[in-house]
Design brief:
The complex is a heterodimer. Chain A is mostly beta strands. Chain A folds into 3 domains: 25-61 and 310-370, no CATH class; 89-214, Methylamine Dehydrogenase, Chain H, CATH 2.130.10.10; 217-307, Thrombin, subunit H. Chain A has one helix at residues 2-13, and strands at residues 23-28, 33-38, 41-46, 56-60, 63-67, 72-77, 82-88, 93-98, 102-107, 112-117, 122-127, 132-138, 141-146, 151-157, 167-173, 180-186, 189-194, 199-204, 209-214, 233-234, 238-243, 248-253, 258-263, 268-273, 279-284, 291-296, 301-307, 312-317, 323-328, 333-338, 348-354, 358-364. In chain A, the strands form 8 sheets. A 4-stranded antiparallel sheet of chain A has the order 3-2-1-32, with no helix packed on it. A 4-stranded antiparallel sheet of chain A has the order 4-5-6-7, with no helix packed on it. In chain A, a hairpin with a 4-residue loop joins strand 21 (238-243) and strand 22. The longest helix of chain A is centred in the N-terminal third of the chain and has 12 residues, at 2-13. The termini of chain A are far apart. Residues 5-20 of chain A have low confidence and may be disordered. Chain B has a 5-stranded parallel sheet, sandwiched between helices. In chain B, strands 6-7-10-8-9 form a 5-stranded mixed sheet, with helices on one face. By secondary structure, chain B is α/β, with parallel strands linked by helices. Helices cover 24% and strands 21% of the residues of chain B. In chain B, helix 2 packs across helix 3. In chain B, a hairpin with a 7-residue loop joins strand 8 (192-197) and strand 9. Chain B folds into 2 domains: 3-113, Tetrapyrrole methylase, N-terminal domain (Cobalt-precorrin-4 Transmethylase, domain 1, 3-Layer(aba) Sandwich), CATH 3.40.1010; 118-239, Tetrapyrrole methylase, C-terminal domain (Methyltransferase, Cobalt-precorrin-4 Transmethylase, Domain 2). The model of chain B has no long low-confidence stretch (mean pLDDT 94). Chain B is globular, with a radius of gyration of 19 Å. Classes of the chains: A mainly beta, B alpha/beta. Strand 31 (348-354) of chain A pairs parallel with strand 3 (50-53) of chain B, so a sheet runs across the interface.
């Protein structure tokens, strides 16, 4: 009887405290390895991942893919945490997209866009004559920008019901502005950033019309120097844009009307919107690398400033918005703050995992992964 | 006044945690935990408790012991109740002695909260008693993973000749070497042997065999795993209970 009471007491005392439940994959920049944190334990390191500077990890279904700085696409199993295959598309690549039955890789080096099947067998090479960026998918279209020729190409899969795609040129937009640098998809809009320009380019992918849209930044604001859209955040009402060189986060509505700018701690690099859209985390460069600020997306005010014992290279919200993960590169650790309290001042450091030279953080949840 | 609790978490089954360990975990400001402590235990902690992972595993980039000692000490400077949570027992291949000494040298008070060691509890969950009347009157617990930095092995293999039951902890990667050594000192090739993986957890698996065939039979068994050698292994046929629940 006493035994049962003890067991019962133990059971009751297990609190409903939120824990980090997703499988977390972390780029170990210097080790060419992908660290795995599962069930709060660092359980694995997937090794031999080539040049891991700026490596990007994406998931689709049961597959994980990485693109490395030196042009390798690597397929791995996020469940067994095993590297399955690698294929080098070029000497330098930075962007890729996963379709239902293919991968499309935007190459820098050999001026092509490479199409692979989901097992990384090459099926099509599209010669563009330019370094390629901003590769996106919309319906049966594959869209990318050509950095050196100032063009945007829209390819269409002419065999959408076949086992493998066959992309043909559907439309080429020329003279779109100088040096397209990055792109994002906002519903049916393909938005392209132009280097050191006051304008952005927008294609309506339903009408296939292109227009240049000036980003009017208010009277005293400077133009965006580096429109790196991977670092933007898109909420229901706003675009949040880290304005490198301005020490501000710009806020635009979805028609690109300037709403306001929020003065922040330093030069912002990266913004991350919480999945419930309530909070925006902002990281910084230079002397302010150790800082992260949280903006309330309703009031557009800074509600918390964190200072860490090292450089923050990446942040990621958990899918349930109960944790915010920080990659503290120079302290060789990844932290998880419990952010379930509605008052950001009450968020607390809940987990610390040692991860050497930690960089990008990527989450895999087999239940929610589509 | 800061207090550090060097605490054993037991072999894996959360209900094998001691009441004392349970109490300090609920009070902890920070829990410094390792790979072998059941992570579900962390859910017992109070809101605001910080969790620092310091697990070690072969071939992976993890914190060396001297850095773990320092992590515990630094946390003792910041927090009042520090729990250093380890799988099994802190003093059975848990390096709790080194951590205690490090704290003592720096004037930090600590308690030892023993845990149920996997050396006896994991065989028990596999239905293998480490002693049994008429079969085994003694048992020996040996590390299956000596530090690679040691120039000469400290394991006195010759002394094992007359042992009834021998338990190797953390020895799966060295299973072939262990089996060969035992045969070399005169244990019969058909001497009973078992490998118990993830003992006392829902993922527990048990492979039984002999010194001659255990390496083959245990291929692919996941870590952590314990090796037990002796006639007591045969008792599992009659006493296995956990996997049948």
């Amino acid at each position: 009887m006493r035994k049962i009471i003890y067991a019962l007491l133990l059971f009751i005392s297990i609190s409903t405290l939120a824990q980090a439940k997703e499988k977390i994959f972390i780029v170990e920049r210097e080790n060419s390895a992908l660290a795995v944190i599962n069930n709060n334990l660092k359980t694995n390191e997937i090794k031999n991942m080539h040049n891991f500077n700026h490596a990007v990890v994406k998931f689709r279904g049961k597959d994980g893919y990485v693109i490395t700085r030196d042009g390798y696409v690597i397929k791995f199993d996020p469940v067994t945490e095993k590297k399955l295959k690698e294929y080098r598309t070029s000497k330098s690549a930075i962007g890729f997209i996963i379709g239902k039955n293919f991968l499309a890789v935007a190459n820098y080096d050999n001026k092509t866009v490479e199409i692979l099947d989901r097992n990384l067998n090459p099926i099509q090479s599209i010669k563009t004559g330019s370094r390629n960026v901003g590769i996106k998918l919309y319906k049966n279209y594959l869209i990318f920008a050509c950095m050196d020729t100032n063009q945007i190409w829209v390819m269409k899969d002419k065999n959408p019901k076949a086992k493998l795609p066959k992309f043909v040129l559907y439309k080429k937009f020329k003279n779109i502005g100088k040096v397209p640098f990055d792109a994002l998809i906002d519903k049916n809009l393909y938005v392209v950033g132009l280097f050191n320009s006051p304008d952005i380019g927008v294609i309506n992918l339903d009408t296939m019309k292109y227009k240049k849209v000036p980003l009017k930044l208010g009277k005293k604001e400077r133009i965006l120097k580096v429109p790196h859209f991977g670092f933007w955040s898109v909420s229901k009402g706003y675009f949040f844009i880290p304005a490198v060189g301005n020490e501000k986060v710009f806020v635009f509505d979805h028609k690109f009307n300037y709403i306001t700018s929020i003065k922040v701690e330093g030069n912002p690099v990266f913004t991350a919107l919480s999945p419930d859209k309530k909070w925006l985390a902002v990281t910084f460069s230079g002397k302010k690398f150790p800082y992260v600020q949280i903006i309330d997306t309703k009031t557009l005010k800074i509600v918390r400033t964190f200072k860490f014992p090292g450089w923050i290279l990446h942040v990621r919200w958990s899918n349930d918005t109960k944790h915010l993960y920080f990659s503290v590169n120079t302290a060789n650790e990844v932290l998880a703050y419990n952010v379930s309290n509605p008052n950001p001042m009450k968020w607390w450091k809940q987990f610390m995992w040692p991860v050497p030279k930690s960089s990008g953080i990527f989450l895999y949840d087999s239940k929610t992964q589509k | 006044m800061t207090r550090v609790y060097l605490t054993g978490a037991g072999p894996g089954d959360i209900e094998l945690l001691t009441l004392k360990a349970h109490r300090v975990i609920k009070q902890a400001d920070v829990i410094i935990y390792d790979r072998l402590a059941n992570p579900e235990i962390l859910e017992m902690a109070k809101d605001g408790c910080e969790f620092v992972y310091v697990g070690k595993e072969d071939g992976r980039h993890t914190l060396p012991q001297d850095e773990i000692n320092e992590v515990i000490y630094q946390n003792a400077l910041k927090h009042k109740v520090v729990v250093r949570l380890k799988g099994g027992d802190p003093f059975v291949f848990g390096r709790g002695g080194e951590e205690g000494a490090y704290l003592q040298e720096r004037g930090v008070s600590f308690d030892i909260i023993p845990g149920i060691t996997s050396a006896i509890s994991v065989p028990a969950y596999a239905g293998i008693p480490v002693t049994h009347r008429g079969v085994a009157v003694s048992f020996r617990v040996v590390t299956g993973h000596e530090s690679p930095n040691k120039e000469v092995s400290q394991i006195p293999w010759e002394n094992f000749k007359t042992d009834d039951t021998i338990i190797f902890l953390m020895g799966l990667h060295n299973l072939s070497k262990i089996a060969a050594k035992l045969i070399e000192i005169g244990k019969p090739r058909d001497y009973p042997c078992a490998v118990i993986s993830k003992g006392s957890t829902k993922d527990q698996s048990v492979v039984t065999g002999t010194l001659d065939n255990i390496v083959q039979k245990a291929k692919g068994v996941p870590t952590p795993a314990l090796i037990i050698v002796g006639q007591v292994v045969k008792l599992r046929d009659q006493l296995k209970w956990f996997e049948q629940q």
